[in-house]
């Protein structure tokens, strides 16, 4: 499954993406708000990455690679997964630092959310962001997510957002 936006190619991860993905996963600034630096070795993470590349999307998981439309260079990821912790389908995204501040996060998340509501049966998605991550909060609010509560994730205060199909359709 591949689709495009004005600036982006949204597609399955490909093996060629791994080195730029690895750089992002080991960048303490890029990973500050998305779970921290991987604790896996290069080879361990490469093996998981290859398995993800080969795995079909399902009703419980779909993670897209986000690439620059001009050169197909990997910029980040966006997708959803069933979250046991939240007991919801969770929209998530993360980008390399060299892709920040250009609107790509919103552009990718908007396109992926549209795809999810059009192609999956789920009627709502949750998202979380640390309270101090203003850029991510702006993206979620612009998409139509609403804060419903706060919770603690990894000893940090996080805002918990929800969007349902009906609200998404009325906004878009």
Structural description of this entry:
This protein is of the alpha+beta class. It has one domain: Gcn5-related N-acetyltransferase (GNAT) (Aminopeptidase), CATH 3.40.630. It has helices at residues 18-25, 42-54, 104-119, 134-143, 165-171, and strands spanning 3-4, 8-12, 61-68, 74-83, 88-95, 124-130, 146-153, 156-164. The strands form two sheets. Strands 1-2-3-4-5 form a five-stranded antiparallel β-sheet, with helices on both faces. The protein has a three-stranded antiparallel β-sheet with strand order 6-8-7. Helix 3 (104-119) packs across helix 4. It is globular. The two termini are 22 Å apart.
Which keywords apply here?
single chain; 172 residues; alpha+beta; Aminopeptidase; five-stranded antiparallel sheet; 8 strands; globular
């Amino acid at each position: 499954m591949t689709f495009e936006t004005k600036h982006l190619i949204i597609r399955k991860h490909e093996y060629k993406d791994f080195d730029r993905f690895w750089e992002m996963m080991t960048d303490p600034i890029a990973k500050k708000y998305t779970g921290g630096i991987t604790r896996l070795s290069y080879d361990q993470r490469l093996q998981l990455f290859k398995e993800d590349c080969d795995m079909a999307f399902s009703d419980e998981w779909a993670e897209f690679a986000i690439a620059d439309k001009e050169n197909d260079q990997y910029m980040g990821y966006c997708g959803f997964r069933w979250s046991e912790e939240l007991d919801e389908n969770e929209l998530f995204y993360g980008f390399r630092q060299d892709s920040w501040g250009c609107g790509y996060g919103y552009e990718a998340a908007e396109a992926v959310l549209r795809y999810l509501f059009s192609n999956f049966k789920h009627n709502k998605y949750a998202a979380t962001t640390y309270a101090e991550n203003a850029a991510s909060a702006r993206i979620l609010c612009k998409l139509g997510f609403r804060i419903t509560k706060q919770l603690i994730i990894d000893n940090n205060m996080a805002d918990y957002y929800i969007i349902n199909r009906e609200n998404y359709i009325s906004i878009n």
